[in-house]
What we know:
Elements: H1 14-36, E1 66-71, E2 74-79, E3 85-87, H2 90-98, E4 105-106, E5 132-133, E6 135-136, E7 139-140, H3 142-147, E8 152-156, H4 157-160, H5 164-170, E9 173-176, H6 184-193, H7 197-218, E10 226-231, E11 236-239, H8 244-251, E12 266-269, E13 281-286, H9 292-304, H10 307-310, H11 313-316, E14 320-322, H12 325-330, H13 334-352
Parallel strand pairs: 3-4, 3-8, 4-5, 8-9, 10-13, 13-14
Antiparallel strand pairs: 1-2, 6-7, 10-11, 11-12
Helix pairs in contact: 6-7, 7-13
Amino acid sequence: MRNTVDVRPSFLGKGVLTAIVVLFSSILLTACGIESAGNSPSETAVVSKEPKSNRTTNSDQSSNEKRVVAHAMGETEITGTPQRVVVLTNEGIEALLALGVKPVGATRSWSGEVGEGTPWYAHIQAEMENVIVVGGEEQPDVELIWSLKPDLIIGNATRQGKLYRQLSKIAPTIFSETLSADWKPNLELYAEALNRTEQGERVVAEFDQRITDARQKLGKHTVMTVSLVRFLPNSARVYYKDSFAGVMVEQLGFARPEPQNKQKHSARVKQERIPDLDGDVLFFSMSEEGPDQMDSVPNAASWQQHSLWSNLQAVQNGRVFEVNDVVWNRSGGVKAAHLMLDDVLKYVEKIKG
């Protein structure tokens, strides 16, 4: 009968060997975790050991870095650079695209069609190909958002404040506080959440440079007063300084007619207020929101056939221009701002003749 020989060193007991095996396995698992971290939102991230003062919030930083972002609903911890983003506002969509981020899901544009047709504004349609529509801004589909497995949700307290708790259980969620006329603060917040702070600063700086260049090109023509009007089905709306177009006009250095020189957003007016629409230049649009578009056309015609309309200085001087409603009023984002700037420069060139 063959004897069994115990080859283990006599100073290693069973308990010691077990501890060694466990320790060795832990080292291997930790190494694997470090290599694969960031491949999936569900994986455990490793906190960077780099001193906080040396860290950056740019996408070239370690994908495992944890950051705390302050926003309208409090503070949210985000790990690394999000890859699957759902965005719930029109201006937020434009901010993401400008930052080089294509969302996996987004709320449809305000004039987007629910059924046939495209859910996106024309100026972002190509970039939004294959992006899943998750409902409208005022009623996004929470279950559909969950099914997309996002690692970041970007929304707005005004639009989706009541859904914040639900959404934050799906993924880290960042809400801007308002949808103001100035798109820059929100873009900077989104850039921070996306770990693209430098890109955000660059987007804002490039636009500011365009404004500076445009003011130089416009020269003495910025002394003109600019009137901003939008035709609705049964009335018109005059836009003041605290509107998207109003902020842009002010940044370019234009003055506003006295009745429109108010730090407010807008006001509905009837035809007896037509004299308040006068200016050296008058830009008007017609509502493109759903069925309003068809009703706005005959309404605009009735205003322009009114005797008070023909008395406007802008009308008499041939300085009335129809502009795109989405770009000048509906979208409210960085891409629309660039397009509006293009429009202003184009029409002032016509005035120069």
